[in-house]
Specification:
By secondary structure, the chain is an alpha+beta fold. The chain has a domain of 52 residues. It contains 4 helices and 5 strands; from the N terminus they run ββαβααββα.
Length: 103
């Protein structure tokens, strides 16, 4: 059986023997599920209060986090209702150096 898989960054063509199709498709589904879970985690957003303090995600003061936002070192979105700042998990990981910065 010929099987073509279109992955996010590439395409893979496989020639499978009988009985391998189910295994390969199950592994592909697991990998795709992991990718979806990672994307969901990276899209989580925090307020400045959730990032600040000893139990906060960044464990820095609110003032420091606001300074990082104003200096452009911490990417954010502005919350419409409260006019506060929202910082995504992806932006936090970029700031911490866990992910390359987005262009």
């Amino acid at each position: 059986m010929n099987l073509s898989l279109n992955l996010p960054n590439s395409a893979v063509n496989l020639i499978l023997e009988k009985g391998q199709e189910a295994f390969v498709l199950a592994e592909y589904a697991k990998a795709w599920g992991k990718e979806a879970a990672v994307q969901q985690a990276l899209s989580k957003c925090y307020t400045v209060a959730e990032l600040a303090g000893p139990k906060g995600r960044l464990k820095r003061s609110s003032k420091t986090i606001l300074n990082l936002i104003h200096l452009g070192k911490l990417r954010h979105e502005t919350s419409g209702e409260s006019k506060g700042y929202l910082v995504s998990e992806k932006a936090v990981r970029e700031f911490l150096g866990d992910l390359p910065p987005e262009a």
